[in-house]
Design brief:
8-stranded antiparallel beta sheet, alpha+beta, 23% helix
């Protein structure tokens, strides 16, 4: 049996997670402890991906669009039509990344703290722009990793992110798995207003 090089495997995991985190960083560059409730008149629809196997509630009036990246990853966007496109836009996106067959569980990428260190906390050049990131919380629950953090890029408004990392086995239709990354983001100045909506989106996420 071929021996596995632990340092190489760790580097592969770090490189993969860093590449995945660049999706959030790029969007942040291009777009941007009171408990809050979603607005009483706000309704939600269930977005259900039967092929990969998960579902999540999305504000019913948010607009859906789909983008394919050059590396064959797919991203589904849901944007608030009441906010202008750009760095102030309220946005939810779901990114899909196929992973190696030996990544059979989320801990294959490391603990929630290790993933936070690899994806959220690094400072410096991300997506070609300097960023300053502040991790608020990192939690492992319901077979997923949950992150709450803020990112500040010079000359742009500070953005607030809520992100879920979830590994769906068999999501490729075969033996492989898919890393599903869901991120909700808004400007930090609006976060208290949006927190109730984001809470409902994040708590509704689940595998089928």
């Amino acid at each position: 049996m071929a021996k596995t090089n632990d340092s190489t495997d760790m580097m592969d995991r770090r490189n993969f997670l860093t590449a995945s985190s660049l999706v959030s960083a790029t969007l942040a560059a291009q777009l941007p402890l009171n408990y809050a409730f979603a607005s009483d008149d706000e309704s939600f629809n269930t977005f259900q991906d039967d092929e990969v196997g998960f579902k999540v509630s999305i504000p019913s009036n948010w607009v859906k669009s789909v983008q394919s990246l050059p590396d064959r990853r797919k991203i589904i966007f849901f944007s608030d039509p009441s906010t202008e496109a750009g760095i102030e836009q309220d946005l939810i996106f779901i990114a899909y990344t196929s992973v190696r067959d030996d990544f059979t569980q989320l801990s294959s990428f490391g603990s929630v703290e290790e993933v936070a260190q690899a994806t959220v906390l690094p400072k410096g050049e991300l997506a070609g722009q300097e960023s300053n990131n502040n991790l608020i919380s990192a939690e492992s629950k319901r077979n997923a990793y949950y992150f709450d953090y803020k990112t500040k890029i010079p000359e742009q408004p500070e953005r607030h992110f809520r992100t879920i990392f979830s590994l769906v086995q068999g999501g490729t239709g075969g033996a492989g798995s898919v890393l599903v990354t869901l991120t909700a983001q808004t400007s930090e100045s609006k976060y208290n207003t949006m927190k109730g909506t984001f809470d409902q989106v994040i708590e509704s996420f689940g595998k089928k």
